[in-house]
Amino acid sequence: MSRALRYDIPGSDWRVCEEDVRAKGWGEIFARDVDSAPPLVVEIGFGRGEFLLDLAARAPRVAHVGVEYSFKRVLKVARRLARTPLRNVRLLEARGELLVDELLPAGSVSVFWINFPDPWPKKRHARRRLVQPAFVSALARRLVPGGHLEIATDDPAYAEEIDAVLSGEPLLENALAPERFLRDIAGRTQTAYEREWRAEGRPLHFWTYRRNSRTLAV
């Protein structure tokens, strides 16, 4: 029998809405809680939230933003976040594409994290995959010079597609070269899903791409 969803927030509610971000901007939203905002650390699709909260705990004066499309997941992480002393995280219920395209100015992000996005394995669903050339180009334009894009997947077919998309983006350079990607990264926080997949022996792929100094026309 499933538990009833609890809607109360046992402390500060760090969720923000699209309208607040448009009206105030990230600097005002994080005012007094971080040293400066932007630049931001952004996780797209934070799932259960353990990776995002660990990132924020390691850098408590840096602004962190997590975006997730699922209301239920955002609510659960908001309740979990409220039980911590963290004040440097804001949660947004939205599609990652909306956050990037409409709510993040150019040069406003220091790191993007995309951990194990849905591979949409059926051919007819491939167009729904998050890591597409246009989206990666948009991510690159939001990064500060030297900023990083970190992506992970456990799906071999999606891995080949991700690798091709990343290597084809002129604003990014492979920070792991000459390796295309790594199978493991020491000290990296493992999500619950990642631990399950490791136990199953799935092949993991981790990319780190860096924003270069090249400038392209808008």
Give me the secondary-structure topology.
Elements: E1 15-16, H1 18-29, E2 36-44, H2 50-58, E3 62-68, H3 71-82, E4 89-93, H4 96-103, E5 109-115, H5 133-142, E6 143-153, H6 156-167, E7 172-174, H7 192-199, E8 205-211
Parallel strand pairs: 1-4, 2-3, 2-5, 3-4, 5-6
Antiparallel strand pairs: 6-8, 7-8
What is the total tally of β strands? 8
The structural domain count equals 1
| CATH architecture tag | 3-Layer(aba) Sandwich
- Approximate helicity band: 25-40%
Uncertain runs with pLDDT below 50, 5 residues or more?
none
Radius of gyration: 17 Å
The average pLDDT score comes to 92
Number of DSSP helices? 7
What would you note in describing this structure?
The model has no long low-confidence stretch (mean pLDDT about 90). It is built from 7 helices and 8 strands; from the N terminus they run βαβαβαβαβαβαβαβ. The chain has an 8-stranded mixed β-sheet with strand order 1-4-3-2-5-6-8-7, sandwiched between helices. It is α/β, with parallel strands linked by helices. The chain has one domain: 3-Layer(aba) Sandwich (Rossmann fold), CATH 3.40.50. The relative contact order is 0.14. The termini are far apart. It is globular, with a radius of gyration of 17 Å.
Question: How would you describe this structure in keywords?
Answer:
218 residues; alpha/beta; Rossmann fold; 8-stranded mixed β-sheet; 7 helices
A few lines on this structure:
The protein has a single domain (15-211), classed as Rossmann fold, CATH 3.40.50.150. 33% of the residues lie in helices and 23% in strands. The chain has helices spanning 18-29, 50-58, 71-82, 96-103, 133-142, 156-167, 192-199, and strands at 15-16, 36-44, 62-68, 89-93, 109-115, 143-153, 172-174, 205-211.
